[in-house]
Structures are given as C-alpha cells and as structure tokens.
Amino acid sequence: VMDCCLSFLWYFIPLVLLIHFVCFIVADADFTLLRASLIGHKPEAKLKGLVVWITGASSGIGEELAYQLAKCGSRLILSARREEELNRVKCHCLENSSLKDEDILVLPLDLLETTSHEHKTKTVIQHFGHIDVLINNGGRSQRSLFLETSVEVYRALMELNFLGTVSITKQVLPHMTQRGRGSVVTVSSIVGLAGAPLSTGYSASKHALQGFFNSLRTELTDFPKILISTVCPGPVQSQIVSNAFTEELSKPVALAGSQEHKMPTSRCVHLMLVGIANGVKEMWIAQQPFLSMYYAWQYAPTFAWAITNMMGRKRVQNFKAGLDADSAYFTKPKTS
Prior knowledge:
Layout: H1 2-26, H2 31-39, H3 43-46, E1 51-55, H4 60-72, E2 75-79, H5 83-95, E3 104-106, H6 117-128, E4 133-136, H7 151-179, E5 182-187, H8 200-219, E6 226-233, H9 265-277, E7 282-285, H10 290-299, H11 301-320
Parallel strand pairs: 1-2, 1-4, 2-3, 4-5, 5-6, 6-7
Helix pairs in contact: 4-5, 4-9, 7-8, 10-11
C-alpha cells in the first residue's frame, strides 16, 4: 500500500505543478478560479435574488460589481461617501437590468465613521430583511516613498483599509452566523501577498486584511455555509491611482499614468463573481507578468525576492524620474 501511495505521489505532484505552470502562462486567474470558470456554477444562476452589499461602489471595481450583479439579478446595497455617484450607478443598473427601484438601496457610508456602521447595517436589514453577501471593496491606495511619507498617511491607510473593513464586517457577520449562511468577500491585492515599493502603507493594510480574514475563516469552521473569501487582484483599470494617498494627506497624485497595461475592470469582476458563486476562498486575478509573481512567491520565494528587488529598483527609479509607478514597468526611465 505504501509503495502504491508513493507511486501515486510521484506522478501526481509533478502533474499538479505542471498544470499550475501552464495555467499561469496562459491564464489571468489561479488554477482553482480558472477551473471554476470553466466547469463550476455560473454567477447568473447562483447569485440571482441574493442581497449583496458593496462598499466602494461609486467607482472602479465596486461600480463594475454593481453593474454585473444587477445583470445577475442580485438585489443591491450601494455604499460609498459620494451619494450623487451612487445614484448615477443605481440609474445605470436599473437601465440595464430587470431590477426594480426597490431592489437597489443607495446607502452613503464612510468607513472611517465606525460609530455609524451599526445603524447602517440595521438600515439594510430593515430594507431587505437580510444580507447574503458583503463585499468589502472600499479603500485607497498609496504612491509615495516611505522616507518621504508622513506617519499620518500610514495611520489613515490602516484606519480606512483595515479597521474600516473590520468594523463593517463586525456588524454584518453576527447576522450571518444567526442565519447560518452568507458570504464576506474582501478585496485585498497582489501586494497583500507580496510587498511593493511606493505602497508600503497600502501593502501593510492589505497584509493585515489577509491575516485577519485567514484567521477569521478558521474561527468559523462551525459555520460551513459562511464563505470568507479574499480577492487578490493585480493592476486593474480604475481610479484607484488617481485617488491614492501620497506623502502628505492632502497632496493629490501628480500623475495617474496609462491604464493600457492593466486588466479590464469587467474581466476582473467577472472572475470575482465566478469565485463567489463557487465558494473560492482566495482568488488570484491578474494579467501577465503579474500573475506569475503569485506563483513565484508560492513555490519559489528566493527567486521571487530576486525578481521583486530587480523590478522594485526600476519602479523607484522611474518614480523619481517622474513616471507613473505602474506603467514604469513598461517604460524606459527618463534621461537628462
């Protein structure tokens, strides 16, 4: 029996590694998510009629989530600080789906105002009766060097991206445990798995989210029908860079840069919904060469460090030369 098991492992392990290698060469999602998209449940079937609360729904990934979930027939709570933008998103959802006005609740929300989160959650439950899915998407990024960045920026990143997300989850999760089912989906980042220069505070906040929700998932083993899922996108076409923190709280980003090399938001969101519909606990979503770095960090961290240092040096050099941090990977540094 032992010989049979060893023979099985001898062939099985290389086969799994080969499949993963092929997937990261040709795909834009991890093997588990790719498999779910090919043979798993379809979002439009699994998510129809569910009550989904989206934070950060006024732009970027959150806005696209609203549009695709509306087409799936999900009932929506749209939250962000800018109510006028939320109303714009709601109108677009109603125009392009079969949802009625009462199926979409616009609920302005500031993640920093944690004392309001209990009341906001009660408002949602009063309107819909329950919450099936919470998508923690709200937050801000960062573009600045640590040596030049105020500690207040780091405090703001942690309070918004980490503590704000923990706070709203704290209000919603007891409702889900009482019902015995539900999903908490949190948008982390590729830098929640591996750090990146110019994003030290942002990366720290996403690492914190990864650690928190990985630990929370284990605490909820008595609730097998509650999904705790984290999404780790690479660069995606959105306004996140334009709204990023810099070295000072009130200083805007000077250059947002090109979006051409980034994954289309629609593709990222489609893969997210596939993952939610199929109960995927962690989703890796990125175009190449970013996706390959996920695998390098997973299977060959020493090699990953070498590549990260090489690319990070170029990223910093181009940033100092006045180029956009993201597109800097695909451009030559300016010369005097």
